[in-house]
Amino acid sequence: MNNCSYDCCKPNSKEFQRVVSHSSLLKIISEENRLKILCILKEGEHCVCEIINHLSLSQSLISHHLKDLRDSDIVSDSKKGNKVYYSLTKKGRKLTDILFSFD
User: Fold this and answer.
1) pLDDT truncated to tens, each residue of the chain (103 aa)?
2) Are 46 and 85 in contact (CB under 8 A)?
3) How far is CA 80 from its chain centroid?
4) Where are the domains of the chain?
5) Angle at which helices 32-42 and 59-71 pack, to 10 degrees?
6) Distance (Å, rounded) from C-alpha 102 to C-alpha 76?
7) Rama region for 44: left / alpha / beta (φ>0; ψ in -120 to 50; rest)
């Protein structure tokens, strides 16, 4: 069978765009520290200072990971006083349900 007959291989198809989108998402969540952050946020909203207490990473590195997760619509942020709190989006909750359901 000719590969060109598969929609996932045709650049203008919805299936192709879905493959590209999933590939980008997998690249974001494949980083170990981002998965740890998602595991923490799965339990509820946290600020960077709280996440620092659980990971051996600098504030700037955690913020960088959170930015990548936010840019991918996996987490959202809200400012409360002088702190920014992060939580999972609907997409992030669905994703963590899948990721952390495996034994």
Assistant:
1) 455 678 878 888 888 888 888 899 999 999 999 999 999 999 999 999 999 999 989 999 999 999 999 999 999 999 999 999 999 999 999 999 999 987 6
2) yes
3) 22
4) 32-103
5) 80
6) 25
7) left
Residue with tokens 């709190």: 85
Task: Please identify, in words, the CATH class of the domain defined by 32-103.
Answer: mainly alpha
Residue holding tokens 């299936």?
Answer: 15
Give the containing element (helix H, strand E) for 86.
strand 83-88
Q: Which amino acid is at 57?
A: L
Q: 89 φ, ψ to 5°?
A: -80, 180
Q: What is the DSSP letter of 77?
A: E
Answer whether 88's CB lies under 8 Å from 42's CB: yes
